[in-house]
Amino acid sequence: MNERYSRQELFRPIGKEGQATISAKHVLIVGAGALGTGNAEALVRAGIGKLTIIDRDYVEWSNLQRQQLYSEEDAKARLPKAVAAKQRLVQVNSEVEMEAVVGDANVEELERLATEARPDVIIDATDNFETRMIINDISCKYGIPWIYGACVGSYGISYAFLPGKTPCLHCLLETVPIGGLTCDTAGIISPAVQMVVAYQVTEALKLLVGDEASLRGKLVSFDLWNNQYASIRVDQVKKDDCPSCGGNPTYPYLSYEMQTKTAVLCGRNSVQIRPAGKREYDLAKLAELFSDQGFSVDSNPYLVSVSLPSHRLVIFRDGRALVHGTKDIQEAKAIYHRYLG
Amino acid sequence: MKLIINGEAIDVPERIRTVADLLEHFQLNKKIAIVEVNACILQKEQYATATLNSGDRVEIVHFVGGG
């Protein structure tokens, strides 16, 4: 044995026993962007037994400012994030078993990952609430805790969801939020990422060593630039009739009707996206949200058309959208989620 | 009116009477937020009618999606 984990073992709440426990645990990280790379590096250094990480995107120059596992070489080569992340993580700690999945974190894939090699904890490092609702239903269905994390600007938020104990994301949100600010519209500074990562990894370590009594138990948020901190105990929000975690769960976000449908429009260099479930957008509000963020927006009573840097996004009242300027379904979905959440 | 918002004493303009007014003041009215007043979480339907009093302790956490 070498001294690799000696300082973590000296930390009393973990100790040698806790370290041995951690080394037998499996963590699934959904997303390999800023939060995903931060969580992955910390957990791999901490010596978990196995890491699975899934991402559909590739490395771009605009990622390097905060996505800590990637290098200029990765951006030049446009390496898939999951592949580039694994390459770096193996250098960091070759003792950890690693599975890198290049693909869409959809219902089918996440259900496979949750059941084939059952993870002990799922870390949310996604950039949209649709995927989070899927993670939430999978967590409830298979009894796997998951740790929400998100950040934008200098603001961040986190919460650890424990199936059967805490409220679930569906209890807290009721519906999927739309049109919020994202990193691509409001920017992000890396300390906000690192702070959320710190909250997520710490709660994950507590869960992995079985120290549930030490869990924070509160929804926490902070704004590093404006020097603010808030936390709320949300236990009372748990709903007995919640379709995801209540007495008679239907796990609505795992059903076919609730999944995003896509189609390439022949000869138009466009992809149509039909989001999960029924939506009814307030188009005026949506147009205002985009123009507030500095985009050029055209609208009529039926649709809103937004000019993005390299694509045009047209959104209809029922949530259906056309992404012009690509034939790539994954790229179109990424753009849709980036701007509509 | 003086409120304790996220642990800090803040003077808010007199026109602010309800939780809905406060969220609008902080430009959080278009976002999904959890609001707690004096350790009690409010339902969204209550925002427009829940009046605030000087000294109330308000915690606001709003959801974001980026990551």
Tally of discrete structural domains of chain B: 1
What's the CATH architecture of chain B? Roll
Report how far the terminal alpha carbons of chain B are from each other: 36 Å
Which ranges of chain B are low-confidence, i.e. pLDDT below 50, for 5 or more consecutive residues? none
What is the name of the CATH architecture of the largest domain in chain A?
A: 3-Layer(aba) Sandwich
Total domain units of chain A? 2
Organism (chain A): Anoxybacteroides voinovskiense
GO cellular component, one term (chain A): cytosol
InterPro entries (chain A): ThiF/MoeB/HesA, ThiF_NAD_FAD-bd, Ubiquitin-activating_enz
Family (chain A): Belongs to the HesA/MoeB/ThiF family.
Topology (SSEs and partners):
The complex is a heterodimer of chains A (341) and B (67).
Chain A: H1 6-10, H2 15-22, E1 26-30, H3 34-46, E2 50-55, H4 72-76, H5 81-92, E3 97-102, H6 107-116, E4 121-124, H7 129-142, E5 146-152, E6 155-161, H8 169-173, H9 183-186, H10 190-209, E7 219-223, E8 228-232, E9 261-265, E10 270-274, H11 283-292, E11 296-299, E12 303-307, E13 312-316, E14 321-324, H12 329-340
Parallel strand pairs in A: 1-2, 1-4, 2-3, 4-5
Antiparallel strand pairs in A: 5-6, 6-7, 7-8, 9-10, 10-14, 11-12, 12-13, 13-14
Helix pairs in contact in A: 3-10, 6-7
Chain B: E1 2-5, E2 8-11, H1 19-25, E3 33-37, E4 40-41, E5 57-62
Parallel strand pairs in B: 1-5
Antiparallel strand pairs in B: 1-2, 3-4, 3-5
Describe this structure in words.
The complex is a heterodimer of chains A (341) and B (67). Chain A starts with 5 loop residues before the first helix and ends with a helix. In chain A, strands 3-2-1-4-5-6-7-8 form an eight-stranded mixed beta sheet, with helices on both faces. In chain A, strands 9-10-14-13-12-11 form a six-stranded antiparallel beta sheet, covered by helices on one side. In chain A, 35% of the residues lie in helices and 21% in strands. Chain A has twelve helices and 14 strands. The longest helix of chain A has 20 residues. In chain A, helix 3 crosses helix 10 and helix 6 packs parallel to helix 7. Chain A folds into two domains: 249 residues, 3-Layer(aba) Sandwich (Rossmann fold); 81 residues, 2-Layer Sandwich (TATA-Binding Protein). The model of chain A has no long low-confidence stretch (mean pLDDT 92). By secondary structure, chain A is an alpha/beta fold. Chain A is globular and about 65 Å long. Chain B is mainly beta and 67 residues long. Chain B has a single domain, classed as Ubiquitin-like (UB roll) (Roll). Chain B is built from one helix and five strands; from the N terminus they run ββαβββ. In chain B, strands 2-1-5-3-4 form a five-stranded mixed beta sheet, with no helix packed on it. The radius of gyration of chain B is 11 Å and the shape is globular. The termini of chain B are far apart. Classes of the chains: A alpha/beta (341), B mainly beta (67).
